[in-house]
Specification:
about 325 residues, Rossmann fold, alpha/beta, about 35% helix, 11 helices
Amino acid sequence: MKKTVIKIENLVKRYKDLIAIDHFNLQIEEGDILGLLGPNGSGKTTTINCILSLLSFDKGSIEVFGQTMRPDSYDLKRQIGIVMQNVAVFESLNVYENIDYFCGLYITDKKLRKQYVEDAIAFVELDSFRKFYPKKLSGGLLRRLNIACGIAHKPKLIILDEPTVAVDPQSRNKILEGIVELNRQGATIIYTSHYMEEVEQICTRIAIMDCGKNIAIGTADELKKMIKNSEKISIEMTPVSEADKKNILTLPHVYDVSYDHGQLLVQCSAGRHNLVHILGYLQQHELSFGRVYSELPTLNDVFLEMTGKELRD
C-alpha cells in the first residue's frame, strides 16, 4: 500500500479581500509524478509556498510524510528538493561549487556530500562543465545545474516549477528524462508547467487548479473523459451549405459544426462511430471531400475547456 506524501485539506489563503486558495484539497501518494496545472493566478505557487510553510494560511491543514508542516520542520524540509522557475545559483561559484554549496545545506558529512555532488553532476551530465561559471553555460546547461542544486541531497519529495522554460528541445528532452529517472529512483514529484505535452508525457496524475480550487484530478485519460469534446473531425472539402451543416449537427453526438478555409470541422461529444456517421451523410448527399482527419482530445483541450482560458506564459 502506497504511503501518502502530501495531504492538504480545506486549505484557505487570503490576501485581504482576495481569496488566493479556496478550500483546496489534494492528496499525493508515494511514487506519483503529479502535474499541477492552472492559469497564471490560479494559486499554484501560493499552494506550493504553503506546503513548504513559506506562507502562513488562514484555514485547513497540510501534512508532509504524515507530519504537520511548520516553519521550523527542518527534518521534513531536508527530505524536500525545490527547483524553481527562476534559476537560483551563485554567479561567483563554478558548477561543482554551486552543487556542493546547496548539498551542504542538508548533508554535513563531507565524504557523503562529496559523493552526492558527484552523483548529481553525473545525473545531469555536467562533468565536462564542472569548472565552468554560470555565465559561461547555455540556457539548457544552466537549467540542468539548477536541477542538480535542488536534488543533490537526494530528497524524497521534489518540487519542479516550470523547469524547462526557454530551453531548446534537446535540453528539454534531457530534463524530462531526468525527472522520470528521479521518480524511478524513488522520488515523489510535483511538476508545474504550461507545456501540456510535457505533463501528459511524464505525469502519472494531473490536478487542475483555477481560482484557488482543485477543479479536477486524475490521469490524462481520466481527465479527457470529463470534458464534452471527445473527438474533432476535420474534412477537406468545398464550401458546405448552411442546410447541410444543420443536418450534420443532428447526427448522433455532434455538438458543433463549422466551415473555414476549405475545412469542415465537426466536434463530437462521445460515441465510437462518429466518423462513420459523418462520412455516410456526405456520401449519401453526394458531397465530395478530400483528406479526413480524426483527432482525440489533448490535455490542452481539457485545460481550456475546464478553465475557459487561453494558456499564458
